[in-house]
Amino acid sequence: MAKAGIGATSAISQEIDVRSDRVSNKIAAQNFNYAYSSMRNCRDGDQWTITIADGPEPACDVLAVATARSNAPVAVKLAELAAIIRLRARAVEKLTAAYRALGSEAEYDAGRELETAIDEATASATQLGTALGIGPVTEVVASSAKFIGGQLAENAHQRRLVRGSARLQAITRHLRLALEQERKRHEQVDSVAGDIEAETRRHLTTAGLLEASPTLREIMEASDFPAPDEGSLIMALEEDPRLRAATQVTAIADGGPNGDPALSAAIDLLAALEVEHEAFQARREVSTAAVSVSIDRLAEIVERASSADPQAAAATWEE
């Protein structure tokens, strides 16, 4: 049981690392997109009128725009998401420690170690739940955690294991519900901000900075067509404007939102873990097969999302 819990929380921790980076990147990209778009009229004839600080026109002043952006609605929402992700990271860290303490308790009488670890995990999960509007973790009634399979636990050690499992199940459930609320927050931000990555690519194309050859290589590989060396790709793009234009359209085009497979996989993983806790407390055989499958699924999504190619990573995250 403890091993399954540690495996689950470790997989979710990896998802948090990638998501935290993506939200930070979205904040930067949103600021870039706004400034690049809004400053297009900062001209006087053929001369740019953009200033760095204390310029006569705030909309064309870098410092003034940067200050204003920190209070923009989308920027505020993204900052709130970043704060929630930090709270989730802390909650998962404490839950991992609690599962390690459960493993220690199962091997030997660890005294107060398990209760202390679960208390800290409960506090962190409650803090996350409060931030997401679902309140505190539901505490387990002591009398309900004295039985295994409907029978009174044989000794104090068994009672601590059963009660520990019941409390960890409550925290796991709370974290699952928190993830469902976090997923809604991401959807709300995306509905307001649109496809930030696609907008950034459009601006970079306008500036002549979007490299087309990586996208063309992906198109060829997806079609099972052997791609030539990089030099040949670049030469073909330079010689054929239609090929370059079609590749740029592919790179820029918005495929539309398709949910959040990473958070959905994490939610499914926590649900599978809850089921294993119920089996443990009912003295049924604990099979961690479903947990293992869910861990592998989440790990696969995270691995693809942390690809070195940012564009492919974004597509994977929103597949």
What does the radius of gyration come to? 25 Å
How many domains, in number, for the residues? Answer: 2
Spatially, the strands of the biggest sheet line up as 1-2
Number of strands: 4
Helix content: over 70%
**Class per helix and strand makeup:** mainly alpha
* Helix and strand element order: HEEHHHEEHHHHHHHH
The span between the termini is 32 Å
Please state the average pLDDT score.
85
In a few lines, what is going on in this structure?
The protein is mainly alpha-helical. The protein contains twelve helices and four strands.
Give your account of this protein's structure.
With 319 residues, the chain is mainly alpha-helical. It has 2 domains: 2-195 and 258-317, no CATH class; 197-254, no CATH class. It is built from 12 helices and 4 strands, in the order αββαααββαααααααα. It has helices at residues 2-38, 62-69, 73-107, 113-131, 156-193, 196-206, 213-222, 230-239, 241-252, 261-281, 289-305, 310-317, and strands spanning 43-44, 47-48, 147-148, 151-152. A two-stranded antiparallel sheet has the order 1-2. The protein has a two-stranded antiparallel sheet with strand order 3-4. Helix 1 (2-38) runs parallel beside helix 11 (289-305). Mean pLDDT is 85; it is low at 145-153 and 308-319.
